[in-house]
Specification:
Number of helices: 6
Shape: rod-shaped
Strand content: under 5%
Helix content: over 70%
Oligomer: single chain
Order of helices and strands: HHHHHH
Largest sheet: none
Number of strands: 0
Radius of gyration: 27 Å
Distance between the termini: 18 Å
Number of domains: 2
Length: 119
């Protein structure tokens, strides 16, 4: 029997995307403030790192990074629940047929045929 989906598993993609968005937004505000305060200062490694960090976080909002996240994130986070990672119906039927044949070798074919007609 399949376990019910928990809140975290059902909404994992949304929650991770929201966390990325909030981190990018917070980082953007913080690094923009540092850039604003240091705007008139001399250029140094610290100022350069702040500028690069701000620009990097701004790029998260660009179409390229969003698209990469949408493709890679969905592929990564939904793989566990995908049909490729779950056992298919034919395999489950074969297992059930084998169990029925072991339990009742004489009457198994009739039971399997009845089940096939019924479902």
């Amino acid at each position: 029997m399949r376990e019910p989906w928990t809140f975290w598993r059902r909404y994992s993609y949304t929650l991770v995307t929201l966390a990325f968005f909030l981190a990018a937004l917070g980082g953007h505000w913080l690094l923009s403030w540092f850039a604003y305060v240091d705007e008139q200062g001399a250029t140094d490694v610290g100022g350069y790192l702040v500028q690069v960090g701000r620009d990097t976080l701004e790029n998260w909002q660009s179409e390229f990074l969003q698209l990469i996240w949408q493709v890679a994130g969905l592929a990564f986070l939904f793989h566990v629940g995908s049909s490729q990672s779950e056992e298919n119906d034919e395999r489950q039927e074969e297992k059930l047929d084998a169990i029925l044949r072991k339990l009742d070798p004489k009457d198994a074919d009739r039971v399997i045929a009845d089940l096939a007609r019924k479902f």
